[in-house]
Amino acid sequence: MTDIHDWVGRKRRIADEMATPLVRRMAALTDRTDIALDRGAPVPNHWLSMLFDDAQPQSQLGPDGHPAKGDFLPPVPLPRRMLGGRRVTYHAAPCVGDTLERETAIASITPKVGRSGAMIFVMLRHTITGPNGLVAVEEQDTVYLEAKRNAPAPKEAPVTVPNAAWRDSWTPDPVILFRFSALAFNGHRIHYDADYARDVEGYPALVVNGSVSTLFLFEAALRRAPGAQIRHYDARTIQPVFCNAPSLLCGTVANAEGEHTLWVGQPDGAMAIRIKTRIA
Question: Can you name the CATH fold of 2-279?
């Protein structure tokens, strides 16, 4: 672990453009007909999730389709990875045609032991700037896990589910997963290679990317708040959402502090993804 902790503080910069074709494709994925494609038109804040891909050469990818560990990412000695959560604050809306830069720093590396065995949390801090300064700051938690076991992992303690003010039925299908992975150039095989997801990583089906669940939760909330934007959110992955599994997109009204709770509900009533967010 000493060598892994030496990775803390490393930084990397990457530039990207909020290009018209990307905005058009995201609008198609989310069934949005109200998005202007003119240069300089504002783009929903949360659509930043489609930018800043890890477009590494094929020769530098690991067996899971992600960039191999040991270059920028630390050489964590655990084979599986998933998104544990993220916290994002938006300071300005990106616009069509903006050139943006993201500086990523490895903020912390934390080993833990959970119900399913050894885990290592790697927190990345992303700072995104644009033509007029700061656009967003994100802290992202990636969880590395042991190889799959023959016995099922013990279930986490249930999370209290609030009373929903609204619910939308949602069944993420392979086309949604493919289109988002293609849009974001995300090569993680658990989102499109069912044989790999099942036989290598031990999942029962394709895993829905956490960014996909977050995207569709926000779109559902914003349909109820025309003209608003996501200003801040704190997302936590509680359990995976699987492809073709009927789910619910749920949300509450704002509490006294102006905060909404959004979540993906499972058929058994459990909460899979939970987001605390401010919308204005």
Answer: Thiol Ester Dehydrase; Chain A (3.10.129)
User: Taking the mean position of all CA atoms in its chain, how far away is CA 169?
Assistant: 20
Alpha carbon distances (Å) from 175 to 54, 179, 204, 249: 22, 6, 18, 18
CB atoms within 10 A of CB 15: 11
**What gap in Å lies between CA 92 and CA 227, rounded to an integer?**
15
Span 80-122, pLDDT tens digits:
888 889 999 999 999 999 999 999 999 999 999 877 789 999 9
What is the DSSP secondary-structure string of 207-226?
A: BPPHHHHHHHHHHHHHHTST
| CB-based burial label for 146 (10 Å; 0-12, 13-18, 19+) | middle
Q: What Rg do the C-alpha atoms of the chain give, in angstroms?
A: 18
Q: If DSSP codes are grouped into helix, strand and coil, which group holds residue 95?
A: strand
pLDDT tens for each residue of 15-47: 999 999 999 999 999 999 999 999 999 999 999
Rounded-to-10 torsion of CA 68, 272, 176, 216: -110
Q: For tokens 């909020």, what's the residue?
A: 18
How far apart are alpha carbons 76 and 110 in whole angstroms? Answer: 11
The amino acid present at 28, given as its one-letter code, is A
DSSP bridge pairs for 124: 106, 140
| Structural tokens at position 168 | 């939308």
What is the distance between the alpha carbons of residues 115 and 156, in angstroms, rounded to a whole number?
A: 7
In three-state form (DSSP H/G/I as H, E/B as E, the rest C), the secondary structure along 32-80 is CCCCCCCCCCECCHHHHHHCCCCCCCHHHECCCCCECCCCCCCCCCCCE
Residue 273 β-bridge partners: 237, 264
Q: Could you give the angle at which helices 174-184 and 20-29 cross, rounded to 10 degrees?
A: 160
